[in-house]
Amino acid sequence: MLDCLAASDAASLPLHCVTPSGLEAFRAVLPPEAAGFLDASGFAARPQEVRLLPGGGGLSGAVLGLGEAPPTPWSFGGLPQALPAGSTWRLAREDHAAEAVLGWCLGAYRYTRFKEAPRAPARLIPPEGTMRSQHAAAAAWRVRDLINTPANLMGPAELALAMQDLATLHGARCTIIEGPALQEGFPALAAVGQASPRAPRVALLEWGAPEAPLVALCGKGVCFDTGGLDLKPASAMLRMKKDMGGAALVMGIAEMVMRAGLPVRLLVLVGAVENAVAGNAFRPGDVLRTRAGLTVEVGNTDAEGRLVLADLLAFAAERGPALLVDCATLTGAARVALGPDLPALFTPDDSLAAALLTAGEKAADPLWRLPLHNGYDGWLDSTVADMNNVAARPMAGAVIGGLFLRRFVPAGTAWAHLDVYAWNDSARPGRPEGGEAQAIRAVAGAIETLFGGIPGPGR
Known about the structure:
By secondary structure, the chain is of the alpha/beta class. 34% of the residues lie in helices and 19% in strands. Strand 2 (50-55) and strand 3 form a beta hairpin. The two termini are 22 Å apart. GO terms for molecular function: manganese ion binding; metalloaminopeptidase activity.
């Protein structure tokens, strides 16, 4: 249980959730002094509007305004900080219990490894039937912690260890590939990380019954990205500890799938590297070999994430997955196009796109589909290798990233690429500033839709 939740027998106060159209009826059942207080305070049940209700012993409860739109987790995300520190609450009605529990937990999160939170969050007694929301929140906390950890403490070894810890927690198998085996099996990934004293590695998690359909998840785990010899300006490095966000996200998706016991077999690959600067760094103009046998001319060392993913995708594709999804903080172009809150979805499969978009909408975890436009594929041409890792033209950067990755996925594979931000630039209800677990509920929900929610044999 997360520390923002309380046991069912804990002493608690009622939390009433009210819409503007229901305000008069709610006011009519309140004691006169409480109704008068609401009137005097100007409470109108606007979204996220909160009032404490007076009572004989001090407080008799609290009221949350929902507005008239259907509530989402964010409707409840401000409550852990808005209600008195350390107080305990229960939902007076459980009409929107799943959204309330998820939003409450996401809003209570704080990264406290180096500095205590300024106040204890209010706690909620979760109603029965909300375990999925609690699991989703726990996975999001794990993802946020990984992304928020500074790069000096979250290098390739630590990221691989985090995968190992996740596997241990859920009875999965974890293999760490490094050294000569990495050089041979993941040559492009190894080239990206070769300049760092913190050696690259691949962490591989496997879970599920052998006869279940295989779902493969690949995550870009660049623990810090200097840009390599195509060095980023200082201002662009300030948030580069989050460049392993894709790896954190696939771990969060895997945790949700394993906790739900979905009838699939998981293969989760994290490419854990640091893109550093040294005399042995890979260079612009170098030609790299990839696991798939394709050669890549390096047009820019700051487009390293797609090199990492190329080898991961090739490895996963060799297993013949029923579904292949990669997550990466791949391009700034996706953020220019869609802003921070909408991960870009690329897939050639319309039915897969529909499943992901629908699941994202249902889970308040939206995605937005962008095209894998074939007309731009030639922009990746190289005169000395099978392809370049960037286009010569400074346009459609997110599309180009997706087209590059597509070359490492066999035709006909159900594949989706998610170009994510994985960060909140400023605090909002349910979304504190810092690392964010974007797309994990959307992808986990789509997996459940596509493969069913009844646990298969061996769970």
